[in-house]
Amino acid sequence: QLTDLLQQYATAFRDPMMLQPPEWFKAFIYCEAFLQLPFFPIAAYAFLKGGCRWIRTPAIIYSTHVATTLFAILAHILFHDFSKGEHAGPQTLRERLALLSIYLPYLLIPLLLLFTMLCNPHYKHVEKRKRK
Question: Where is this protein localized, as stated in its record (predicted)?
Fold first, then answer.
């Protein structure tokens, strides 16, 4: 059952945010559901089709949004005092780094996408000159 799997994950990695998410974390979940998830099929279409330069701006918006939310999540994992919570959170540096390693790919992949959109010559904006 999915609830058992969630409980096992939260226990193994000491991730109380999955069992009792703070309000700000819930806001990120709603952003993911209503902004990020709709982006996936659009981006998949653009990247599979190829040559779709129009994906640059949506990809930049998506990747900066996701990176920004992940910075907050990673800072929470590193600096929050989890000892006062109802569910067990990471206490040692090793436990914090283990939980951090779960969330880190969700930062690295959007940063790679952002880097690609900003630096790859294929996606660079080409100005159209007006004819006189």
Answer: Rough endoplasmic reticulum membrane
Q: Is residue 132 part of a domain?
A: no
Residue 1: its pLDDT value, please? 83
Burial class (CB in 10 A: 0-12, 13-18, 19+), 94: exposed
Does some domain include residue 67? Answer: yes
Q: What are the φ/ψ torsions at residue 81 (nearest 5 degrees)?
A: -90, 100
- Could you report the average pLDDT of every consecutive run of 10 residues in the chain (132 residues)? 91 93 95 93 95 94 96 96 89 95 96 95 70 59
CA distances from 3 to 6, 8, 10, 89 (A): 5, 9, 10, 18
Domain assignment of residue 129, yes or no: no
In a domain, 114, yes or no: yes
pLDDT at 128: 59
Residue-range definition of the domain harbouring residue 91: 1-123
Number of domains in the chain: 1
